[in-house]
Structure formats: C-alpha cells, structure tokens
Amino acid sequence: MTDSPTRSIPWLRIFAEGVVIVGSILLAFGIDAWWDGQQERREEQEALAGLESEFEANLTQANEVIERHLQGRRSVESLVELEEEEIRALPQATISEIATATCNPWTFDAILGSTEALIGAGKLGVLRSRELREALTSFVNLVSDAAEDGAYVGWSAERLWLAEVDLGGPWTDPDQDVRLGGERLESASFIPRASAEDLLRMREDRRFMGLVSRCHINVGFYVGEIEEVRGGTGSGSQGARSDCRRALRFAVQGPSVCRLRQPSPILRV
Length: 269
What we know:
65% of the residues lie in helices and 0% in strands. With 269 residues, the protein is an all-alpha fold. Helix 1 (11-81) packs across helix 4, helix 1 runs antiparallel to helix 7 (206-230) and helix 1 runs antiparallel to helix 8 (244-252). The protein is rod-shaped, with a radius of gyration of 31 Å.
C-alpha cells in the first residue's frame, strides 16, 4: 500500500486571486455608485433648469398681476374722488379704464410643472440643497393659499358683473381688452363703451359701490398672498416663508440665476 504524495497548498496564489476578486467586486460597486451619482447630478441639473424657468415666469406674471390690481385701485379711487364736472370731462380711454377697474379679476396662475413633477415623483431628494427642498414645499402651500383668496375675488366679480347689467352694462373697449402680456382680445363690437354718465350712475348706486368695495378688499388680501408667493416681505416667519428663488440661486451657485427684485407695495384697503 502506497501513501498519496503530500501536495503543498498554494496559499499565496489563492490569496492573490481572492484579493483580485474582492477588488473587482469593490471596483464594480464603486463604478456603479459613481455612475448613479452622475445620473443624480444630471437629474438635479435638469430639475434646477426647469425650476429656474418656472420661477422667472411666475415672477413676471406675479409682477404684472399685482400692477394690474394696483392700477385698478387707483382708477376706482378716481371714480370716488373726482367731482362730477371732472368725470364728465374725462377722455374715453380713462372712462373705459375706470369702468373696467371696478372689477377686473386678474388672477395669478402659477406654473408648477417642474415643482409638481419633483414632488409627485418623490424626487425632491435629488436636490442637494435642503433649503431649496423646504422652499419648494412652502412655495406650493403659498400658491394654494393665494388660490383661496383668488376664489373670493371671483365671487365678488360674479356679483359685480350682474350689478353692471342692472346699471345698463356691461361695457367694453377694444383698446382695454388685453390679456396679461399685452395680447389683445377679439372684442364684441356690439358691446358699447362706458360713458361719463355710466360712471356717475355707478357711483350713485350704493349697492354697486358696496360690491366694488367688497371686491377690492378681497383683491387686497389676494395681492398680499401673491406678494408672499413672489418672495415679498410677508408677515410669516422666514423659515416657513422661504424664498424659493433665493434658495434656487444658492443651489446652482450662481448669482445670475434668480435676481431678486424689490416688491411693489401691497395693495391696502
């Protein structure tokens, strides 16, 4: 009976092969993690670009809506304050402006595509800036708050439009019928322009002027909410009322992204 020859175990080779295998696995994990990180950074840059575009569009729209309401308030003040002879001497353009301003419910319709896509898909985490993530959530809440006040403005408008009919209206003016942005509307030619006599009749009607006052009180609150959305100096705490555009500027690390503008005065009643 012959014993089997004793063979030495190649420990060094086995160890080297093990190191190579473990190293390959770790390298694969590292490459995979690096690739995932690159994908997330691309997603973040796409999200930031979409948010920047939305915030700029929302800022432009908010500024215009606020200015429209401020102009309307000034026109209504002139209806209340002018003497009868001064109203009769007004040019047609001013008469039309005043008649329109009694209630023209310009609304702020926020663009939320990128914001809602991030929140709806649960991808807020792709944004590395915690401040921006919190600001986006606050932004959506502020838009919702503004919409509630906008509904009250619409409620007032419906009643004012019916009251106009009782006074001989409605009235229109092709030169005044424009959308936000300055685009002109096709006006119905059979609808007359308001006259100085129409303005005087409006002013003498207590119910109509009461509805005008109610409408502009609601507009005052609405404009205040839009100021909050725009990033104005609202009454809420800075933590809850974060400025989305400022947070976005920090996130992309560039001052050219979102230049903050001074808010116009909040419409007060």
